[in-house]
Amino acid sequence: MPHHTTTKKEYALMTYYEKELHRIRAIVYANEAQINTVIGVRNYIATNYELNVSLDMLSHIQFVSKFHLIRLFKKYYGLTPRQYLIDKRIERSKDHLAAGMTVTGTCFAVGFESLGSFSSLFKRKTGLSPAKFRKEQLSRSKSE
């Protein structure tokens, strides 16, 4: 939201309520650039999770340092961009596995480069290996 800079003359002519609105708006929109940065990064990750998404690339896209980006993202979402990317990939992999895709096919479809790291992260996040998750989902869909 573009802000109009109020002159001293304009400010003097404002009512009490206009001044309060002006004061509150300055507080509410003070972090707008930060919020837009983290939302932009989150949206990029959410729509491009299967690509080779790196912190260097994300910081370059948003014109912000890597370290500042990590701090901002963690401040607003409670996770680093990397943690969010992994969560997004695991979330999507569940859909692929439930639809019957192989574990190896799922691994590469969601952007992991190593079957071993995919399997260990999947198990850590869900409590099940990808193969066991797939088997349970497929047997559940057959029984319904």
Give the N-to-C terminal Cα separation: 50 Å
Low-pLDDT windows of residues? none
* Series of H and E elements: HHHHHHHHH
Shape: elongated
The multimeric state of the shown protein is: single chain
Number of strands: 0
- Work out the helix count: 9
What portion of residues is helical?
over 70%
Query: Taking Cα atoms only, what radius of gyration do you get, to the nearest Å?
Result: 23 Å
How many domains would you count in the coordinates? 2
**Beta-strand residue fraction:** under 5%
Q: What would the average pLDDT be, to the nearest integer?
A: 89
Largest sheet: none
- Helix and strand content put the structural class at mainly alpha
General description of the model:
InterPro entries: Homeodomain-like_sf (IPR009057), HTH_AraC (IPR018060), HTH_AraC-typ_CS (IPR018062). GO terms for molecular function: DNA-binding transcription factor activity; sequence-specific DNA binding. Residues 39-136 form the HTH araC/xylS-type domain. This is AraC family transcriptional regulator. Keywords: DNA-binding, Transcription, Transcription regulation. The protein is elongated. Helix 3 crosses helix 5 (66-77). It has helices spanning 8-13, 16-28, 32-48, 55-62, 66-77, 81-98, 103-109, 115-126, 130-143. The chain folds into 2 domains: 8-81, no CATH class; 84-143, Orthogonal Bundle (Arc Repressor Mutant, subunit A). The protein contains 9 helices and no strands. The mean pLDDT is 89. The chain is mainly alpha-helical. The longest helix has 18 residues, at 81-98. It is 74% helix and 0% strand.
